[in-house]
Amino acid sequence: MENEFLKKIKEVEFEALIGSIAISITVILVIVNVFLRYFLGIQYSWIEEVSVGCFIWTVYLGATAGYRKKGLIGVDVLTKILPLKGRRILRVITNTLLLVLSASMFYLSYNYTASSDKITSALEVSYVYINSSLPVAFGLMTVYSVYFFIYDIINFNDLEIEAIEEKEEFECQIEDVMM
Asked: Residues 6 or more apart from 19 whose CB is under 8 A from it?
């Protein structure tokens, strides 16, 4: 029972879910603001602040969701010409660099957010609520980087996993072309 619950939690892409909610709020608020401004002559400045904040959360959560699924843009020319062992070594090196980068960005963004004392002009709310999207996103990317690194180390010599991953990657590319 617990294993099924954990599997369902893994399947839920909460970054994409929260990001989808945030972008939906952004779109609705912008449409409402345009309607109010052009048809009724009413303008609320808080709508712009909320929509910008939601959009910022959408961007960073979207980047995190893409990173989790390994769907961010990458150049794989070097990877494709290397032999299998070379690809694995390069992947471990890449994941190590990404781990260091995401952990550094988490540290810097946390310090930036913690020291923020600005407030928004219309709502007079602290920018911490908007800026906290940075440490959340980079914190999650750091967690995923640790997972990717450990996964690659544990499965370094497993040829079967490499074949499965290549097949899944090929199927994803075909699926992307068909869309």
From this structure: 57, 58, 61, 62, 65
119, pLDDT greater than 80: yes
| Structure letter (DSSP) for residue 71 | -
pLDDT surpassing 80 at residue 137: yes
Distance from C-alpha of 172 to C-alpha of 78, rounded to nearest angstrom: 20
Confidence of residue 1 (pLDDT cuts 50, 70, 90): very low
Task: Look up tokens 């370094």; give the residue.
Answer: 156
In tens, the pLDDT along 8-63 reads: 656 778 888 999 999 999 999 999 999 999 999 998 989 999 999 999 999 999 99
Nearest to 94 by CA among 25, 40, 148, 156: 148
pTM of the entire structure? Answer: 0.80
CA angle 147, 100, 23 (to 5 degrees): 70
Distance CA 174, CA 8 (A): 26
| CA–CA separation, 35 and 89 (whole Å) | 56
Cα gap 132→113, rounded to integer Å: 6
